[in-house]
Structures are given as structure tokens and as C-alpha cells.
Design goal:
The chain is of the alpha+beta class. It has two domains: 4-101, Serine-tRNA synthetase, tRNA binding domain (Helix Hairpins); 115-422, 2-Layer Sandwich (BirA Bifunctional Protein, domain 2). It is built from twelve helices and 17 strands. It has helices at residues 11-20, 27-57, 64-101, 137-144, 149-155, 166-184, 198-203, 229-236, 292-309, 359-364, 389-399, 411-417; strands at 119-124, 147-148, 162-163, 188-191, 195-197, 223-225, 240-243, 249-258, 277-287, 314-318, 330-338, 346-355, 366-369, 377-378, 380-388, 407-408, 421-422. The structure holds one RNA strand of 90 nucleotides.
RNA sequence: GGAGAGGUGGCCGAGCGGUUGAAGGCAGCGGUCUUGAAAACCGCCAGGGGUGCAAGCCCCUCGAGGGUUCGAAUCCCUCCCUCUCCGCCA
């Protein structure tokens, strides 16, 4: 959420951001609503002041007639206050949905446009030339018996799956390797709950309601299944005043992630690329405002080190405004080369790193105290993927397959997996 | 699931219905002392909001929401949450 007080002074910028993001919000209505809220607030403050003065006068000894008059006046004031409070609550309620609909500011370098209009920042690694006909990860699984979507569909539904055999080891090994990389970079590891209170989910600006919701809710409770450990890690410091000396805070979380994938039927839906549940190691950072841009780069650097270790060719892209989520000020995705994606191979999203500036912190009420300034400030929050297991498995299988149907395991992963290859069978 | 206890400032923890926005402690900040540091001692120090160039002034907040009262952190009701014990259980 933005600070409603800056709406007016940065109005044009916000309107432009909404347009770039293809978000339809009435910024002027929000400005007007906020004005009404402050007007009533001011009026209420004055009335409360009168009431307080009146009450102070009631402490004296009063004769019965005076007391009676005093009491009557007190009742009158009380009613007026109640009336104003009611109006204030109503105006606040009107402002709230408008504020929630307004996305974060936009980084000046974020490209305009939609999903296809990203800026490519760099490419690392050469897509491999195969001297045989490579298979996609589903076909490889057919040979190697690594996952079972039929059983997943039977037991849980479309896009649910079982990993089997070496794929299970791969899932565990990738997590373990990722944890080593993030710890090396100073991100303290956590396992997190796979559910969170709606209040926390809301605070991170994931909307669990509405038909396009990506979030599963647990009926009869106020809990949602998390879509990413960003939610639980961010929740840790909700409603907290941190010391400047504690920043930056680097955390990482191992969790399962659940996504309804509402509205994405048929979209890149082959196999493990888009599923309802997956395991992920996530980085989450809390910084001072002036440090968030550097932290963003730091997170991307960790992501790159991991992909380099896995010998997956990739490119880093700066996501266009129209493809950013509401909380993201700027987002860098890393797309890994997937030989069987599209027609003759293509890059597909493997990780994603966002700088959410103070957008999440404002709703979460995560602030910090500077050593020398009395005014407390909201922190900046950032998140990035260390490993999203299924997609990484896709990239490893497809990139490192061999003509005999086996898969070579990258050297850096071998000790974690305990294998130099999978198959052939 | 059953029984009980409790939710107060960055943290811990007091708090007869008006003098408590809140004792005390810790942490933090400033100072005295010290070659320096520690210790000791002295002082300052809740958060949010409105208004103002500013100093300041004002309002709100003791889990949330209602109620009683001229007046509630203190009394009543509802809800939420946390903890302890018992049961069940990986």
C-alpha cells in the first residue's frame, strides 16, 4: 500500500504507473476520499478536545444543579463524538479499497509494455547443441520413471504430481545445495509454515479473494496455503519496530508453495513447468530504503551463482511494467534455457527477484528506528527465488540429457545428489 | 479436544474508575568519571495521527469490538490471540 498522504503530490506519477501496469484505479477518487478522512479527523480532534476539557471540569465538587447540567452536557458531547466517529469509519472504509487497488511506484528503468517487453540485461552460458534428438522432461520421465502425473490427477487432480525415484533425490539435493548458497551469502535459513493467517497474506499484498486469486484458502479457518515463503518470512516482522543496527536482515525459507493457477489453464502447462504445489527455497531481505537497490542486485547475484553451478544457460531480464505485481517496484527474472520449450528451445522463468520498497512494509507495519533520527520509517522488503524445484528439474533434465536417455548431473550437484548421472534404463 | 492463566511502551513488567500515556527494570541516546573501555552515577527516551515554516499545540492508542459511566488500562459482554496442564498423536 502507498502512503495516502503522498497521493496528491505524486498524483501524475501514480496515474502513469497505473496506466503502465494496466491497472484501472481511480487515483483522484482516492485523493478525494483521503481528504474527507483527514477533514473529519481534524473535526473529531477538535471535538474530542472540547470533551476532554469538559471532563476535566467534572472532577470538582459540584452542587446538585451544576452536576445535573454538567452530566447533560457530557451526554450531548458524547453523542456528537459518536456521530463523527461513525462518519470517519465510513469514509475510511471507502478509502481502503481504493488504496489497496493502487500499485507500487515504478522504477524509472522498468520497461513499458507487457510480458514480452522485458529488457534483457545479460545472457550467461551457451544453449547446448544436441547431436541427437533431445527429449522433453516428460519424455525423459517416461524413460527414467521420475514423476507420475496420472497418479497425481487421480489422487489430487490436474497439475498435481508425484515425484519418484531420482527425482525425489533431486528435489532434496537441490534444496540442500541452495541452502548452502544462500547461507554463504548471509541469508539465515528457516523452514516455514506452509499456511499463514489471511491478515499476513494480505499484508504482503497477495490477494486471496476474488476469482483470479492464486491462493488456496482453508475452509473454516482464517488460514491460506502460502504461495511462497515470502509470505511467512515477511510475516515474522509484521507489526515490529526494528533497530537500524539489525538491518539489513537476510533470511531464507524452505517451504511448499501452493498456487491455484486460476486462469492459466492450458498456458505453458506441460509437465512440471506449472503445477499447483512445489518446493522452493526463497530469499527474503529487509533493508533501509537507501540499501534496497543494492540488495536487489545481491539477491540476483546469488540466483546467478546457483544457476551457474547447475550449468544452466540463462538470461537476466528486467520485467516490464505491465507484468509486475502490485507490490513490486522493480523485478528481475532469471530465465533458464529449456531446450524443449517452444519451438527449438526457449528461455523459461526459473527465478524472480522483486524490490517491493516500502509497499509491503506499510501494511505489515514493519518499521525501523534510525540511530540519530526520531521519526521511524518503513523498511524496504525484497524477495527472490534461490531454487524453485520443479522448474529447475525441468532445466536440468532437458539440458543435461544424453543420447542414451540418461541425464548427467552437474559436478556441483553430484555430492548433494550422491549420483553422477540418472539412468540410462 | 478438555481445564486453567494471561494479552500494557523497542523488550520485560507494575498498575485503588478521575492526579496513569502509564511505576520499575532492560535496551538506546546524552553527560560525569577514566589514558581508553567497562563499571558506577546523573539526565533524556512510547507509537500513530491532525495542524503549523518551525518551536509547538491538539487528538488517538494499554489484543479487537461493543456496553456501563459525566469520566475506563482499570467494571460488564462478545470475539481474537498467546501460554500452562490433561488427553490424543508424527
Amino acid at each position: 500500500m502507498l502512503d495516502p498522504r503522498i497521493l496528491e503530490s505524486r498524483r501524475d506519477e501514480i496515474v502513469a504507473s497505473c496506466k503502465s501496469r494496466r491497472v484501472d484505479v481511480d487515483v483522484d477518487a482516492a485523493i478525494a476520499a483521503h481528504q474527507r478522512v483527514t477533514e473529519i479527523q481534524t473535526e473529531l480532534n477538535g471535538l474530542n478536545q472540547r470533551r476532554n476539557e469538559h471532563q476535566a471540569g467534572g472532577k470538582r465538587k459540584l452542587d446538585p444543579a451544576e452536576r445535573e447540567a454538567h452530566v447533560a452536557e457530557g451526554r450531548q458531547l458524547k453523542e456528537e463524538v459518536a456521530e463523527l466517529e461513525k462518519r470517519l469509519a465510513a469514509e475510511r472504509a471507502a478509502l481502503q479499497p481504493l488504496m489497496l487497488a493502487i500499485p507500487n511506484f515504478l522504477h524509472p528503468d522498468s520497461p513499458q509494455g507487457g510480458e514480452a517487453d522485458f529488457n534483457e540485461l545479460r545472457r550467461v552460458g551457451e544453449p547446448r547443441k544436441f547431436d541427437f534428438q533431445p527429449l522433453d522432461h516428460m519424455a525423459l520421465s517416461g524413460k527414467l520413471d521420475l514423476f507420475d502425473f496420472e497418479a497425481g490427477a487421480k489422487v489430487s487432480g490436474q497439475k498435481w504430481y508425484f515425484l519418484k525415484n531420482e527425482a525425489v533425490l533431486l528435489e532434496l539435493a537441490l534444496q540442500r545445495m541452495a541452502i548452502d548458497f544462500v547461507m554463504e551469502a548471509g541469508f539465515a535459513p528457516f523452514t516455514t509454515p506452509d499456511v499463514a493467517r489471511k491478515e499476513i497474506v494480505d499484508g504482503l499484498a497477495f490477494s486471496p479473494r476474488g476469482s483470479e486469486s492464486q491462493i488456496y484458502s482453508i475452509e473454516g479457518t482464517d488460514l491460506d496455503l502460502i504461495g511462497t515463503a515470502e509470505i511467512t518470512l515477511g510475516g515474522i516482522n509484521a507489526d515490529t519496530l526494528l533497530d537500524e543496527a539489525d538491518l539489513p536482515l537476510r533470511m531464507s525459507g524452505v517451504s511448499h508453495c501452493f498456487r491455484t493457477e486460476a486462469g492459466s489453464a492450458g498456458r505453458e502447462s506441460k509437465g512440471l513447468y506449472r503445477v499447483h504445489q512445489f518446493t522452493k527455497v526463497e530469499m527474503f531481505a529487509i533493508t533501509r530504503p537507501e540499501d534496497s537497490a543494492a540488495m536487489h542486485d545481491e539477491i540476483v547475484a546469488v540466483e546467478e551463482r546457483i544457476l551457474q553451478a547447475l550449468e544452466i544457460p540463462y538470461r537476466v531480464i528486467d520485467i516490464a511494467a505491465g507484468d509486475l505485481g502490485a507490490p513490486a517496484y522493480r523485478k528481475f527474472d532469471i530465465e533458464g534455457w529449456m531446450p524443449m520449450r517452444g519451438d527449438g528451445g526457449d528461455y523459461g522463468e526459473l527465478t524472480s527477484a522483486s524490490n517491493c520498497t516500502d509497499y509491503q512494509a506499510r501494511r505489515l507495519k514493519t518499521r525501523f528506528r534510525r540511530a540519530d533520527v526520531k521519526k521511524n520509517e518503513f523498511v524496504h522488503t525484497l524477495n527472490g527465488t534461490a531454487i524453485a524445484v520443479p522448474r529447475t528439474i525441468v532445466a536440468i533434465l532437458e539440458n543435461h540429457q544424453r543420447s542414451d536417455g540418461s541425464v548427467a548431473i552437474p559436478a556441483a550437484l553430484q555430492s548433494y545428489l550422491g549420483l553422477e548421472r540418472i539412468g540410462p534404463r
